[in-house]
Design a protein that fits this description.
alpha/beta, TIM Barrel, 8-stranded parallel barrel, 5-stranded antiparallel beta sheet, 19% strand, chitinase, GH, Glyco_hydro18_cat, hydrolase
Length: 392
C-alpha cells in the first residue's frame, strides 16, 4: 500500500508540476549575460526574463580559502537595475575549457565542502540569487579530451552529484542552483539513469545546451541548433530521470559555419550530411581553422562576408530535421544558425511538445543591436502568456 500511495503521489505531483509549467505559470526564460557582450536592451524587451546568469566566474576562485574579492565583468546590483524587479540574478561558474577549479574542488569530501563554502561566501558578498554550474564536462569530452583521456576523468561522474549536494547544503533551499549541461549524447558521460536522479535532488533546473550540436569533432554537416537534435537531447535527459518541467531548452544567438568537401558534397541530393574537411587536430583536438562562428553583435569576418550574405538571402529551412541552413557550393561553406522564424518554430515543435519548463539563450548581448532573435522568443512567450491567462 505504501508503494502504491508513493507512486500515485509522484504521478499527482508530476502532473501538477507539468500543469504549472504549461499553464498556471509562464515558462522560465533565462538569459546569459556575458563579459564579451555586456549589453542589455530596454526593459520592455526583457519583460519575460525570469533569470539572468552572469558569465563567467572562474571555478578556481573557490579553491583558494580566504578569498574576499570575486572578479566579474560587472556587479549583481548593476545588472539588477536593468531587469524587471522579480528577475533572479545568478552567477555562472565555469565555461568551456575552465575545468581545473572544478576538478580540484570535486576531488574529495573535504575539497567539496571547502569549495561549497567559498561559493556560499561569494553569493552572500555579491548579493546574487543563486549560481549556474557550467562544468564542460564532468567525466570527460571537454576541451582537453585528446590530451587527458576520459578514463582519467571517470571519477568525476560520481563526484559531480556529490559536489552539487555540498553546494545545496551550503547555499540552502532558497538560492537557485542550476547547471548548464551538454546537448550531445556523446558528451553526457556524467548524466545517466544512475546519476541524473541524484543530480536533480540538488538543482532547480537544467539548461540543456542544445546548440553547438555540430562542432569541430564532427565530420559531416548538420544543424548546430536544430529541432531533431534538440529533441534527442531532451529525450535523453528525460529517459535518464529529469522531469520535463525542470528542463530549459537552449537557443543560440550566433552563427556557425564549416568548410566542406566539394566533389562529394555536390553529388549528394541534400547538403545535410555532406562531408566536411578535417576540423580538429587528431592528436591535440585543437581547432584547425576550418570552421567558425560569430554573434549577431560581432562584425562579420571579411573572409566569409560574401558567403554569409548569400546564406542570409538564399538559405532555407530544413523541414525534416528542423533548422535554417545554406551550403555555399562556390566557397564550400556550410552555414547553420537560427533565424527568428526558426526560433519561433521550436516552441510548438520542442518546448510545448515536450512540456518543458523553460528556455534560455546564449547570450543576451550577443543579439544586439537589433535583438531580432530575442524578439522572436518574446513573441512566442507573449503567446504562451496569453494562453495562460485564458486558461486561468
Amino acid at each position: 500500500m505504501r508503494l502504491r500511495w508513493s507512486t500515485a503521489f509522484w504521478w499527482l505531483s508530476y502532473g501538477m508540476a507539468t500543469e504549472v509549467a504549461l499553464g498556471a505559470t509562464p515558462p522560465r526564460c533565462i538569459m546569459y549575460l556575458t563579459g564579451q557582450h555586456p549589453v542589455v536592451p530596454p526593459i520592455e524587451q526583457v519583460r519575460h526574463v525570469t533569470h539572468v546568469a552572469l558569465a563567467f566566474m572562474r571555478p578556481g576562485a573557490f579553491t583558494v580559502p580566504g578569498q574576499t574579492e570575486w572578479p566579474l565583468f560587472t556587479s549583481v546590483n548593476e545588472v539588477r537595475r536593468k531587469f524587471p524587479a522579480k528577475t533572479k540574478i545568478m552567477i555562472a561558474i565555469g565555461g568551456w575549457g575552465d575545468t581545473k577549479g572544478f576538478i580540484g574542488g570535486a576531488k574529495t569530501d573535504q575539497t567539496r565542502k571547502a569549495f561549497a563554502r567559498e561559493v556560499a561566501k561569494m553569493v552572500m558578498a555579491t548579493g546574487a540569487d543563486g549560481i549556474d554550474i557550467d562544468w564542460e564536462y564532468p567525466g570527460g569530452n571537454g576541451e582537453d579530451y585528446k590530451v587527458v583521456p576520459n578514463s582519467k576523468k571517470a571519477w568525476e561522474i560520481e563526484a559531480y552529484p556529490l559536489l552539487l549536494s555540498e553546494l545545496r547544503a551550503a547555499l540552502g533551499p532558497d538560492k537557485v542552483i542550476s547547471a548548464a549541461v551538454p546537448g550531445l549524447e556523446r558528451d553526457m558521460l556524467a548524466f545517466t539513469r544512475l546519476t541524473v536522479p541524484r543530480i536533480m535532488r540538488h538543482l532547480d533546473f537544467l539548461n540543456v545546451m542544445t546548440y553547438d550540436l555540430m562542432n569541430r569533432r564532427d565530420n559531416v554537416t548538420k544543424h548546430h541548433t536544430g529541432v531533431y537534435l534538440s529533441l534527442k537531447a531532451v529525450d535523453a535527459y528525460v529517459a535518464a530521470g529529469a522531469a520535463p518541467q525542470n528542463i530549459n531548452l537552449g537557443f543560440a544567438f550566433y552563427t556557425k559555419y564549416f568548410k566542406t568537401e566539394h566533389e562529394t558534397c555536390k553529388r549528394l541530393a541534400s547538403p545535410v550530411g555532406c562531408p566536411t574537411l578535417l576540423l580538429e587536430d587528431p592528436e591535440t583536438g585543437g581547432d584547425l581553422g576550418r570552421g567558425g562562428g560569430f554573434s549577431w553583435h560581432d562584425p562579420v569576418p571579411k573572409e566569409v562576408a560574401g558567403s554569409f550574405t548569400r546564406a542570409l538571402n538564399l538559405g532555407t529551412y530544413d523541414e525534416n530535421q528542423g533548422g535554417y541552413y545554406y551550403w555555399d557550393k562556390d566557397e564550400d561553406i556550410w552555414w547553420t544558425f537560427d533565424t527568428p522564424d526558426a526560433i519561433k518554430r521550436k516552441f510548438p515543435l520542442v518546448v510545448n511538445k515536450k512540456r518543458l519548463g523553460g528556455v534560455f539563450a546564449w547570450g543576451l548581448g550577443e543579439d544586439a543591436p537589433m535583438y531580432e532573435h530575442l524578439g522572436a522568443m518574446n513573441e512566442a512567450l507573449d503567446e504562451r502568456t496569453k494562453e495562460t491567462k485564458e486558461e486561468l
